[in-house]
Design brief:
The complex is a heterodimer of chains A (about 250) and B (about 210). Chain A is mostly helical and about 250 residues long. Chain A has eleven helices and no strands. Classes of the chains: A mainly alpha (about 250), B mainly alpha (about 210).
């Protein structure tokens, strides 16, 4: 009925169209996943604050500025007062800090641009994780090496579950800079015992032999055969009914 | 017809190569292109709700601040306001009494944690006041906390300094809870290597700066 030429045209056209639709679908399907779209988000902040300088080189603990993270679901962005604790004396005339000084004098907040965000229908609690001694770096990456902070992990639901189903493989060894631990950290087995919370102080437990230096991350290099449900004070992340495999743990 | 076939074949090869590269890049998880643009959102049904999120802008209020400042004179539940000013040194010796925080390992460790977080930026992890900030000549004249003059200060006076500040040091009353302040004092005593006294007579504190 149709000519051979027309027939071939329809075949090729159909193939091209189908391939294009497939490509568009795949680009949207994979391209807007959090791993691709969110990771690497690095907005320009109103004040050129460098975590690399403050946390990395000056050894200021995360919690000095993000104080209250261990008590609150929301990890607070520091108040301008916190900046001015030091910057009344340190670089008081710097033009880069003009916005901070203005904010301090007028009482108007600096409008930092939010980088890490979970959807509004998911409730993430920082204090819960800090108290379970999850280091900041596990989710936020090596912030003390970032001049401009970028999102390091996807913060998607699948990513949450990956870690909660296999925390030993994903949690980064604690570092002094985070302030989560005090000075040294224990082996994996001891981390599950709450009597070691905030312990040890070198002066107090100098005699103990099972200490590992904190600079060597031991959490994550070793798989533990647990879940061990009854840990004093710290519910194991795999515990049924509490952990995020219960929908209402985060979506409430 | 041959030409058409060749073009079609080339098209498919190019498409397959691009697709394979794309899949490898995405699925390997190594693909992180940095972007200052907001993340792409696909069907963001309820991701952004009209509710007050802490420290976020909110159009409901005229000043767009979701976190409201308390009405003047109100005290938040559990909030403990430090009543003394920076100059009330004499009153501090009697007003600041340890409420019975025990000197246990746990409390000491808590004190170390809080000291490392809030004090070490200026005073160093060892209280010798030689942290990177001082070594970089950014802030000079911070006193060594292990020197005898400082070690001679009473617990009540150190509590006063933490709570109200001294000289260029601001008040940390809003950041460190009262119990944590006593824990810090216990830990500071271990760094100083002294027992410490609960409070001094007001006259003797006048000479120490």
């Amino acid at each position: 009925m149709f000519s051979r030429r027309f027939d071939m045209g329809v075949k090729i056209g159909g193939a091209v169209l189908g391939a294009s639709v497939l490509c568009v679908f795949l680009v949207i399907f994979f391209g807007v996943r959090n791993t691709v779209a969110d990771v690497g988000y690095r907005p320009e902040q109103p004040v050129p604050f460098s975590h690399k300088l403050h946390a990395g080189q000056l050894n200021i603990s995360c919690q000095y500025c993000h104080a209250g993270v261990e008590n609150s679901a929301h990890s607070p962005v520091p108040t301008t007062q916190t900046c001015m604790n030091c910057h009344t004396a340190v670089l008081p005339e710097s033009p880069k800090l003009q916005l901070v000084r203005d904010s301090y004098e007028k009482g108007t907040p600096i409008e930092w641009i939010r980088i890490h965000k979970v959807p509004d229908y998911a409730h993430f609690n920082h204090s819960r994780h800090i108290r379970a001694q999850i280091d900041c770096k596990s989710c936020h990456g090596p912030v003390e090496e970032m001049g401009v902070v970028s999102q390091f992990k996807p913060l998607s639901m699948g990513w949450c579950l990956d870690c909660h189903r296999n925390p030993e493989a994903n949690i980064v060894g604690a570092r002094p800079i985070s302030g989560v631990f005090t000075g040294q950290m224990h082996k994996v087995k001891d981390l599950l015992d709450s009597t070691y919370l905030y312990k040890p102080i070198p002066a107090q437990v100098a005699a103990a032999s099972d200490l590992k230096d904190m600079v060597t991350p031991s959490f994550g290099q070793k798989q533990s055969p647990l879940p061990k449900y009854h840990v004093d004070g710290i519910p194991h992340p795999k515990k049924a009914g509490i952990g995020p495999e219960n929908c209402s743990a985060c979506h409430y | 017809m041959n030409a058409t076939n060749r073009i079609a074949r080339l098209f498919w090869i190019a498409l397959a190569a691009a697709f394979a590269g794309f899949v490898v890049m995405v699925l390997s998880g190594n693909i992180t292109w940095f972007s200052t643009a907001r993340p792409l959102e696909f069907l963001n049904n309820m991701d952004h709700q009209f509710k007050a999120i802490p420290q976020s802008g909110n159009t409901f209020f005229a000043d767009r601040a979701s976190v409201r400042t308390a009405v003047e004179g109100t005290v938040a539940r559990g909030q403990q306001v430090y009543p003394l000013g920076q100059g009330d040194i004499d009153k501090a010796e009697t007003a600041n009494v340890n409420p019975g925080v025990p000197r246990t390992d746990f409390v000491l460790a808590r004190g170390q944690n809080r000291f490392n977080v809030f004090c070490s930026a200026c005073h160093g992890y060892d209280a010798h006041s030689n942290p990177p900030m001082v070594r970089r000549q950014r802030w000079l004249g911070i006193p060594d906390l292990t020197r005898p003059q400082t070690a001679a200060l009473s617990d009540a006076r150190i509590y006063h300094i933490i709570s109200a500040g001294q000289n260029l040091m601001p008040s940390y009353a809003d950041k460190i809870t009262p119990v944590d302040r006593w824990a810090i004092i216990y830990y500071l005593r271990t760094l100083q290597g002294v027992q410490g006294v609960a409070s001094n007579a007001p006259a003797s504190t006048q000479q120490v700066q």
